Amino acid sequence: MLSLYLLRHAEAADASGGVPDRERPLTAHGLAQAERVARWFGTRDLRPSLVLHSPARRVRETVAALARAMPGLPMREVPRIYNADPRDLFELVRELEAGDILLAGHNPGIHALGMMLAGAESESALLERLAAGYPPATLAMFEMPGTGWDGLKPGGCRLADLAAQG
What is the DSSP letter of 71? Predict the structure, then answer.
Protein backbone atom coordinates (compact mmCIF):
# COMPACT_ATOMS: atom_id res chain seq x y z
CA MET A 1 0.00 0.00 0.00
CA LEU A 2 1.31 3.45 -0.96
CA SER A 3 0.22 6.79 0.46
CA LEU A 4 0.00 10.06 -1.43
CA TYR A 5 -0.53 13.29 0.49
CA LEU A 6 -1.81 16.30 -1.44
CA LEU A 7 -1.16 19.59 0.35
CA ARG A 8 -2.31 23.01 -0.70
CA HIS A 9 -0.06 25.75 0.64
CA ALA A 10 -1.19 27.64 3.72
CA GLU A 11 -2.80 31.11 3.59
CA ALA A 12 -0.67 33.57 1.64
CA ALA A 13 -0.55 37.34 1.50
CA ASP A 14 -2.60 39.02 -1.21
CA ALA A 15 -0.97 39.66 -4.55
CA SER A 16 -0.92 43.40 -3.96
CA GLY A 17 1.90 45.88 -3.65
CA GLY A 18 3.76 44.67 -6.70
CA VAL A 19 4.96 41.40 -5.11
CA PRO A 20 5.32 38.78 -7.86
CA ASP A 21 2.99 35.82 -7.41
CA ARG A 22 5.88 33.38 -6.84
CA GLU A 23 7.17 35.55 -3.99
CA ARG A 24 3.98 35.91 -1.95
CA PRO A 25 4.75 34.96 1.67
CA LEU A 26 2.51 33.23 4.15
CA THR A 27 0.47 35.39 6.48
CA ALA A 28 0.80 34.96 10.25
CA HIS A 29 -2.33 32.81 10.06
CA GLY A 30 -0.75 30.79 7.24
CA LEU A 31 2.39 30.15 9.30
CA ALA A 32 0.19 28.79 12.11
CA GLN A 33 -1.71 26.62 9.60
CA ALA A 34 1.57 25.17 8.33
CA GLU A 35 2.54 24.24 11.90
CA ARG A 36 -0.82 22.47 12.33
CA VAL A 37 -0.18 20.47 9.14
CA ALA A 38 3.15 19.34 10.60
CA ARG A 39 1.44 18.35 13.86
CA TRP A 40 -1.14 16.34 11.88
CA PHE A 41 1.68 14.06 10.71
CA GLY A 42 3.20 13.83 14.18
CA THR A 43 -0.05 12.88 15.93
CA ARG A 44 -0.54 10.03 13.46
CA ASP A 45 3.10 8.91 13.44
CA LEU A 46 3.19 9.33 9.65
CA ARG A 47 6.17 10.47 7.61
CA PRO A 48 6.35 10.74 3.83
CA SER A 49 9.38 9.26 2.08
CA LEU A 50 9.70 12.37 -0.08
CA VAL A 51 8.18 15.84 -0.32
CA LEU A 52 7.85 17.37 -3.78
CA HIS A 53 6.93 21.03 -3.77
CA SER A 54 6.41 24.08 -5.92
CA PRO A 55 9.13 26.74 -5.97
CA ALA A 56 6.65 29.44 -4.90
CA ARG A 57 7.60 31.09 -1.60
CA ARG A 58 4.24 30.32 0.04
CA VAL A 59 4.71 26.62 -0.66
CA ARG A 60 8.34 26.64 0.49
CA GLU A 61 7.26 28.29 3.74
CA THR A 62 4.48 25.73 4.20
CA VAL A 63 6.75 22.71 3.77
CA ALA A 64 9.43 24.33 5.96
CA ALA A 65 7.15 23.57 8.92
CA LEU A 66 7.25 19.89 7.93
CA ALA A 67 11.04 20.00 7.72
CA ARG A 68 11.26 21.45 11.23
CA ALA A 69 8.92 18.80 12.61
CA MET A 70 10.55 15.90 10.74
CA PRO A 71 14.32 16.49 10.59
CA GLY A 72 15.97 14.83 7.62
CA LEU A 73 12.75 14.70 5.61
CA PRO A 74 13.81 14.53 1.94
CA MET A 75 12.46 17.50 -0.04
CA ARG A 76 12.70 18.34 -3.71
CA GLU A 77 11.64 21.60 -5.33
CA VAL A 78 9.97 20.82 -8.65
CA PRO A 79 9.37 23.87 -10.87
CA ARG A 80 6.67 22.16 -12.92
CA ILE A 81 4.40 21.93 -9.85
CA TYR A 82 3.90 25.72 -9.87
CA ASN A 83 0.32 26.24 -11.13
CA ALA A 84 0.33 22.84 -12.84
CA ASP A 85 -2.85 21.32 -14.15
CA PRO A 86 -4.01 18.02 -12.62
CA ARG A 87 -2.89 15.87 -15.58
CA ASP A 88 0.68 17.19 -15.24
CA LEU A 89 0.64 16.49 -11.50
CA PHE A 90 -0.78 13.02 -12.15
CA GLU A 91 2.04 12.24 -14.59
CA LEU A 92 4.63 13.60 -12.16
CA VAL A 93 3.45 11.15 -9.48
CA ARG A 94 3.39 8.25 -11.96
CA GLU A 95 7.08 8.90 -12.73
CA LEU A 96 8.12 8.42 -9.09
CA GLU A 97 9.68 5.40 -7.46
CA ALA A 98 7.79 3.64 -4.70
CA GLY A 99 7.40 5.33 -1.35
CA ASP A 100 4.93 7.56 0.41
CA ILE A 101 4.87 10.95 -1.33
CA LEU A 102 3.73 14.39 -0.27
CA LEU A 103 2.96 16.74 -3.15
CA ALA A 104 2.65 20.40 -2.10
CA GLY A 105 1.30 22.95 -4.54
CA HIS A 106 -1.56 25.17 -5.59
CA ASN A 107 -5.21 25.20 -6.48
CA PRO A 108 -6.88 24.45 -8.75
CA GLY A 109 -4.41 21.69 -9.69
CA ILE A 110 -4.06 20.04 -6.27
CA HIS A 111 -7.83 19.95 -5.70
CA ALA A 112 -8.54 18.68 -9.19
CA LEU A 113 -5.91 15.95 -8.81
CA GLY A 114 -7.57 14.86 -5.58
CA MET A 115 -10.93 14.68 -7.31
CA MET A 116 -9.36 12.69 -10.13
CA LEU A 117 -7.76 10.13 -7.80
CA ALA A 118 -10.58 9.53 -5.31
CA GLY A 119 -12.14 6.16 -5.96
CA ALA A 120 -15.54 4.73 -5.14
CA GLU A 121 -14.17 2.88 -2.10
CA SER A 122 -13.63 6.23 -0.37
CA GLU A 123 -16.09 7.17 2.38
CA SER A 124 -18.92 9.24 0.97
CA ALA A 125 -18.59 11.89 3.72
CA LEU A 126 -14.92 12.44 2.80
CA LEU A 127 -15.76 12.60 -0.90
CA GLU A 128 -18.43 15.23 -0.22
CA ARG A 129 -15.96 17.33 1.79
CA LEU A 130 -13.36 17.00 -0.97
CA ALA A 131 -15.88 18.03 -3.63
CA ALA A 132 -16.90 21.08 -1.55
CA GLY A 133 -13.48 22.70 -1.89
CA TYR A 134 -9.81 22.74 -0.97
CA PRO A 135 -9.00 25.80 1.13
CA PRO A 136 -5.44 26.80 2.07
CA ALA A 137 -3.56 24.28 4.25
CA THR A 138 -5.84 21.39 3.30
CA LEU A 139 -4.17 18.00 3.31
CA ALA A 140 -5.68 14.92 1.69
CA MET A 141 -4.31 11.44 2.27
CA PHE A 142 -4.83 8.88 -0.47
CA GLU A 143 -4.00 5.19 -0.33
CA MET A 144 -3.22 3.15 -3.41
CA PRO A 145 -2.81 -0.61 -3.52
CA GLY A 146 0.37 -1.82 -5.14
CA THR A 147 4.06 -1.20 -4.92
CA GLY A 148 4.77 1.42 -7.57
CA TRP A 149 3.31 4.76 -8.64
CA ASP A 150 3.36 3.67 -12.27
CA GLY A 151 0.13 1.83 -11.40
CA LEU A 152 -1.66 5.08 -10.48
CA LYS A 153 -5.01 5.42 -12.26
CA PRO A 154 -7.86 7.94 -12.12
CA GLY A 155 -10.26 6.74 -9.43
CA GLY A 156 -7.66 4.22 -8.27
CA CYS A 157 -7.09 5.56 -4.76
CA ARG A 158 -9.01 5.56 -1.53
CA LEU A 159 -9.37 8.96 0.12
CA ALA A 160 -8.29 7.94 3.63
CA ASP A 161 -8.35 11.35 5.34
CA LEU A 162 -8.99 15.00 4.62
CA ALA A 163 -7.75 17.62 7.05
CA ALA A 164 -8.39 21.32 6.58
CA GLN A 165 -6.21 23.40 8.88
CA GLY A 166 -8.40 26.53 8.58
Answer: T
